[in-house]
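Please describe our next protein:
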Amino acid sequence: MNGKIRNIVLFVSAVSMLFSCAGEPKATPNKDKAEEMFQRVWELYRVPKYGLFSEYYPGSHRPDLTYFNDSTRQAQEVSYLWPMSGVFSSAVLMAAIEPEKYTVYVDSMVMAMEHYYDTTRVPFGYQAYPVQFGKVDRYYDDNGLVGIDYIDSYLVTKNPHYLEKAKQVLTFILSGWDENFEGAVSWLEGVKDQKPACSNGKAMVLALKLYEATKDNYYLEVGKKFYHWIDKYLKDPERGVVWNSWLTTTSAVCPDLYTYNTGTLLQAAVALYNYTGEQAYLDNAKFLAEGSYKVFFKYTEEGIPYIADLPWFNLVLFRGYHDLYNVTGDPKYVDTMIKGLDYAWDHARDQAGLMYHDWTGRTDEKRRPKWLLDASCVPEYYARVAMIKGEVKTEK
């Protein structure tokens, strides 16, 4: 009898444990971090008066900004377009992993972006600062970012308005195309001194995503034109990285290296392999991944990997690594980036919970104002890590 009772007790305990485990929610540490940082950005940077965001936190910090063609400009009450795009991109990724909760944020960012939409010049396009505050330059790379955010928004929500906006952006960028040096566009409207990887790389990614959404061969061919131009004029054929720009006034390359330029060509190579099945594209993607890995990654004395570039620039490279991982299953490149990211989470954040610009934490940035672009890219990093680690599934 005692044996029977013991067996019954063991059976009941086993069943109880089974149901207890089945009822426990799946651990999603990276998704949780993405959500935490996303909300932090919206709480700390949002300027409700305009429905826009401040360039820095705290908003009273308004330094000179150096990312313009003609001169430095002081930060204003709301952000310039480039950092805003980081908020838009993160909203789209959050909506991809939890549409019921985050699609409303995508809609909000669409409304915010339209503050930058200039209809006084033809073709219409997005300028660097909200039109209500005056007329400023329109950069092709800025527009490429907006276009990518719109087409990604369409791929997540299937809202046809977002698809049309993405098409309009590409039309604006292509208005800057000329056949000098076999094609490509300049950095900004009306200034023809260079043909940079930033403008052409973003246009390339936008065109290929439009092909993914529409299956219209026109966009595939446009994407290929940008791809082959960058591959010919701006790729370092020995190291597997992408130079900054082609200088049209001197017929020479500007060899500066920024991670995001290699990242966009890597994204495009993977996309073209997926669309065409041609091995040459996958071979180039692997070449770019390994090249960027060798050129850009450094290590601290403790063995922590880092890249001495803007966190957002590195995010674009991470997008390329993520796309390649989805094809090959090789975690080498994504895992290295994730190791540095996780170290920064634990060792390089301030009192407000915002990440440092220097992810190694070797610079004390606890009381230093934080740039919107440095903060707004973090939710996308962790959303992608959640995808890579299998914490979330997306329909796309």
Observations:
- The longest strand covers residues 252-257.
